Amino acid sequence: xxxxxxxxxxxxxxxxxxxxxxxxxxxxxxxxxxxxxxxxxxxxxxxxxxxxxxxxxxxxxxxxxxxxxxxxxxxxxxxxxxx
Length: 83
Known about the structure:
The chain is of the alpha+beta class. The chain is built from three helices and three strands; from the N terminus they run βααββα. Helix content is 33%, strand content 11%. It has a three-stranded antiparallel β-sheet with strand order 1-3-2. The longest helix has 10 residues, at 38-47. The protein is globular. The model is unreliable at 13-20 (pLDDT under 50). It comes from Dictyobacter alpinus. GO terms for molecular function: DNA binding.
């Protein structure tokens, strides 16, 4: 006789921050955290000083998302010399 795993469908499963995209920040959110202008954050991303994920785009301006871990690492290492 085979046993089947029972799943509880009475309550919806809560999504983690990673699944909801909670670990990705917009350029504007990063700029607010660092107290700089959006353009400065974009310049850092384009120069490679700040790691980011480029979003697909069809216009002039590319959209970016910065992982929260990357921003946290900036705060944990003190004042970054490359940024």
